[in-house]
């Protein structure tokens, strides 16, 4: 019998959803208000809260990691080693289950077919657990091969350490895959907060491990001390992975009625999940190949380039997760429910959700990208500059963030477009365009990162910045292809013409104001000793301020100017923010 007195609990939220926008930018005809319709906006907020908490703890984790290991050889080896078992997590984890399991499971919930939904949940868990166990065992056996493929620049002691770390880390990845199954159940039941707060536990365990082990060895230990820190840290990652899964299990069990893990394909719904699973797995595999290319190329440039690339990804994925992942994760179950209705308004409802979601994403991600471009040195300094991670490391990281800023909007909006195809039970289209993106990106990455710097007489390490730039360019190609295909299915969809120029214009004005403040502080206080001379550059050097204070002094005017200019340019989201702030301050009704 189901728990909670025999009644199945459903969480409905009634916060008002954003007004859908037409392709021309004017408000489209509003659809009738309903709990399902409002769940997307409220769900996105809950996902964003969970992701924000998790990302903040992730930044603390990276700061502690940078304090004890910086850009040392062991730091690069650990980060590369973590990438290898993460391939399994990304192959069978949240992205794949979101594209294959959630659309089917959420549609069954929408049809009130609880028994079939429970059978699907049990069968998917059984199949996933079996596949993960096999992959973990094979991964531990084939670790040396994986290390040679992912980080071909490692040899000798670096390679030996990477092999040891990967074998420790692999079992933890299995728990993260099962944690993604929990996320699929929770999201489909509109329980968004817990699944995105769970990684906080993972981060807390890693931080605690770093603090304990790092304090024992200090920041000036030799190679043996660094290797000891990374090995203990790997065990901490495994423990954190198990706890991330465990904290979600009680709530998942309460939501499921008759949960029985089985390995069975008897249900047509389970077969539909597997039918979707293949293309989505291939799509994720293609994306992982792209990540492998970047890691491999960075390892061929230098250890500093490799570790800095992974630091940069931690930073620029914050807005991608907060706005792109939050909106896409919350909208996917609702889009699946809308397409399951099969009525004449299904495409209208889907188009309305895509339009509103893409506007929300662009409004927040555009200033994030511009801020990374103009203030990336202060951002990286405020977040990571401590211990063995110095001012020159922050400045180098800025170059990588500049490249990443180019494709930030495309990466986040593209997630929403891909989710729309998953809701339409068409995972093959995102797969095709992902293949195009990776093929083009691999060629571009080789040309820009490895071939071009030497021909231009630039330092070899600047090739890492061209790696992030290449990824940004091909992200725009993929997103454009996804949008064109969506338009052929559901009609005009996505960001209205003219919106991005207004948003980028407002953000550029804010960025120039922030840059002027930054230069004013530099002129007033003078550059920090030893900073700015790297590669002959003395322009735009950071002021003699603590990076956190410097970031606050520039980010606040940047934000104020962005909101003011975007509101003056008629961007509705900016006006809504001002009205909300005015009501909070008692200045408006």
Summarize this entry quickly.
The chain has 589 residues and is mainly alpha-helical. It contains 19 helices and no strands. It is globular, with a radius of gyration of 24 Å.
Q: What would you note in describing this structure?
A:
α2 (73-92) packs parallel to α8. The longest helix is centred in the middle third of the chain and has 39 residues, at 303-341. It is built from 19 helices and no strands. With 589 residues, it is mainly α.
List the defining traits of the structure above.
mainly alpha
Topology:
Layout: H1 35-69, H2 73-92, H3 94-110, H4 114-141, H5 143-150, H6 157-188, H7 192-217, H8 223-246, H9 249-255, H10 268-301, H11 303-341, H12 346-384, H13 391-405, H14 408-423, H15 428-456, H16 463-490, H17 499-525, H18 547-568, H19 572-584
- Can you give the helix content as a percent range? over 70%
Largest sheet: none
CA-based shape: globular
Question: Count of DSSP helices?
Answer: 19
Q: Secondary-structure element order, as H and E? A: HHHHHHHHHHHHHHHHHHH
Helix/sheet category: mainly alpha
> How much of the polypeptide forms β-strand, as a percent range?
under 5%
**Radius of gyration from CA coordinates:** 24 Å
Question: Distance between termini?
Answer: 49 Å
In round numbers, the mean pLDDT is 80
Report the strand count: 0
Detail the poorly predicted runs: 1-37, 526-543
């Amino acid at each position: 019998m189901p728990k909670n007195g025999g009644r199945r609990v459903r969480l409905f939220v009634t916060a008002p959803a954003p007004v859908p926008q037409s392709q021309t930018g004017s408000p489209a005809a509003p659809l009738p208000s309903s709990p399902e319709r409002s769940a997307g906006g409220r769900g996105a907020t809950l996902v964003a809260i969970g992701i924000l908490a998790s990302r903040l703890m992730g930044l603390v984790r990276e700061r502690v990691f940078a304090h004890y290991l910086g850009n040392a050889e062991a730091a690069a080896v650990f980060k590369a080693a973590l990438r290898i078992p993460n391939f399994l997590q990304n192959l069978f984890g949240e992205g794949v289950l979101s594209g294959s399991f959630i659309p089917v499971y959420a549609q069954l919930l929408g049809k009130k077919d609880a028994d079939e939904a429970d059978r699907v949940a049990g069968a998917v868990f059984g199949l996933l657990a079996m596949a993960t166990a096999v992959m973990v065992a094979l991964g531990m056996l084939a670790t040396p091969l994986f290390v040679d493929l992912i980080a071909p620049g490692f040899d000798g002691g670096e390679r030996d350490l990477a092999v040891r770390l990967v074998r420790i880390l692999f079992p933890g990845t299995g728990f993260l895959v099962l944690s993604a199954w929990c996320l699929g159940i929770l999201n489909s039941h509109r329980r968004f907060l817990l699944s995105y707060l769970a990684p906080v536990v993972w981060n807390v365990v890693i931080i605690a491990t770093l603090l304990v082990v790092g304090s024992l060895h200090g920041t000036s230990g030799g190679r043996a001390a660094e290797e000891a820190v990374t090995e203990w840290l790997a065990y901490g990652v495994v423990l954190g992975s198990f706890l991330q899964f465990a904290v979600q299990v009680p709530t998942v069990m309460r939501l499921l009625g008759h949960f029985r893990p089985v390995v069975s394909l008897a249900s047509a719904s389970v077969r539909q999940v597997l039918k979707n699973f293949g293309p989505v797995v291939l799509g994720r595999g293609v994306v992982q190949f792209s990540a492998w290319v970047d890691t491999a190329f960075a390892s061929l440039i230098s250890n500093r380039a490799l570790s800095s690339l992974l630091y940069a990804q931690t930073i620029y994925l914050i807005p991608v997760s907060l706005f792109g992942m939050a909106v896409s994760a919350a909208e996917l179950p609702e889009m699946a429910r809308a397409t399951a209705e099969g009525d004449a308004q299904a495409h209208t409802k889907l188009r309305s959700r895509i339009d509103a979601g893409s506007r929300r994403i662009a409004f927040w991600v555009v200033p994030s990208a511009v801020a990374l471009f103009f203030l990336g040195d202060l951002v990286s300094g405020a977040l990571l500059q401590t211990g063995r991670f110095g001012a020159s490391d922050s400045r180098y990281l800025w170059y990588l963030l500049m490249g990443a800023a180019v494709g930030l909007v495309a990466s986040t909006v593209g997630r929403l477009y891909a989710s729309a195809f998953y809701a339409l039970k068409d995972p093959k289209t995102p797969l095709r365009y992902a293949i195009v993106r990776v093929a083009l990106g691999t060629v571009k990455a080789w040309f820009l990162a490895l071939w071009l710097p030497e021909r231009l007489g630039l330092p070899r390490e600047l090739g890492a910045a061209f790696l992030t730039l290449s990824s940004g360019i091909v992200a725009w190609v993929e997103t454009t292809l996804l949008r064109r295909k969506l338009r052929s299915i559901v009609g005009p969809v996505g960001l209205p013409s003219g919106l991005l120029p207004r948003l980028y214009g407002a953000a550029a004005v804010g960025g120039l104001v922030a840059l002027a403040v930054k230069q004013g502080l530099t002129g007033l206080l003078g550059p920090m000793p030893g900073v700015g001379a790297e590669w002959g550059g003395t322009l735009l050097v950071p002021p003699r301020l603590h990076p956190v204070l410097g970031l606050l002094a520039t980010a606040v005017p940047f934000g104020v100017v962005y909101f003011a200019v975007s509101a003056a340019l008629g961007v509705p989201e900016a006006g809504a923010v001002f009205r909300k702030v005015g009501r909070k301050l008692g200045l408006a009704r």
